[in-house]
Specification:
alpha/beta; 16% strand; 230 residues; nuclease; 9 helices; 46% helix; 5-stranded mixed β-sheet
């Protein structure tokens, strides 16, 4: 099963009021295991960056001014996403901005049926607890010490680790590793048995002296069961 973990950075909170997507980071998973394939891009939002948003992700007007428009890189993004399920933290926010940009490009929006929201999963597993990415990374022991500011690819990498934890991926992986180790051991034993020489069966027969001692012992038994009549 192929899934894409993704995160976005934006100029604000509401695409309907003119906010735009400025960064997207994607991590590919196959059967809950990262493959090493990623997608990462910055986009020129064609508007100024509010100071509050820049304080969160550090992406300034000067940095973004020479970046491509979303419309110029959309085909590459869609080729990476394919038709996979898309996993995000507070996914409606990220889906909202992604679909707004696709709509501006006059392209079909991504179906909400493809959405997997890790906030919703965390709320089911830990009702009443904090469900921010930082809080959940702390709960599951995921190192985020290298995270100074928000970044789409960095947050997607953290979210990939969290998603694996939330869905029991480590336990699944451990089970597969154990089965693989058993298989290797069994193959080694099979190879060892295959090269052993075949020896004829040995015959062990009691001698006359042993038979006499056995008969004397049986004679001391008080009504042995095997001598009773049925």
């Amino acid at each position: 099963m192929r899934e894409i973990i993704f995160d976005t950075e934006t100029t604000g909170f509401d695409p309907a009021s003119g906010d735009r997507l400025v960064e997207i980071g994607c991590i590919e998973l196959l059967n809950r295991v990262p493959t090493g394939r990623t997608f990462h891009a910055y986009y020129n939002p064609q508007r100024s960056m509010p100071a509050a948003a820049e304080a969160v992700h550090g992406l300034s007007d000067a940095f973004l001014k020479d970046k491509p428009l979303f419309s110029h890189g959309v085909e590459e993004l869609l080729a990476f996403l394919e038709d996979s399920h898309l996993v995000a933290h507070n996914a409606r926010f990220d889906f909202g901005f992604l679909n707004h940009e696709l709509k501006l490009c006059k392209l079909p929006e991504v179906s909400m049926e493809r959405m997997i929201d890790t906030v919703a999963i965390a709320r089911q597993l830990h009702p009443g607890a904090k469900h921010s990415l930082d809080a959940l990374c702390t709960r599951y022991g995921i190192d985020r010490s290298h995270r100074i500011k928000h970044g789409a690819l960095l947050d997607a990498e953290l979210l990939a680790q969290l998603y694996i934890e939330l869905t029991g991926g480590r336990q699944i992986g451990l089970g597969l590793a154990q089965e693989e180790e058993k298989l290797v051991v069994n193959m080694e034993l099979a190879a060892e048995v295959a090269v052993r020489p075949v020896r004829p069966a040995r015959v062990f027969a009691a001698g006359a002296e042993e038979l006499e001692r056995h008969a004397a012992f049986v004679a001391t038994l008080d009504k042995p069961l095997w001598l009773e009549e049925a």
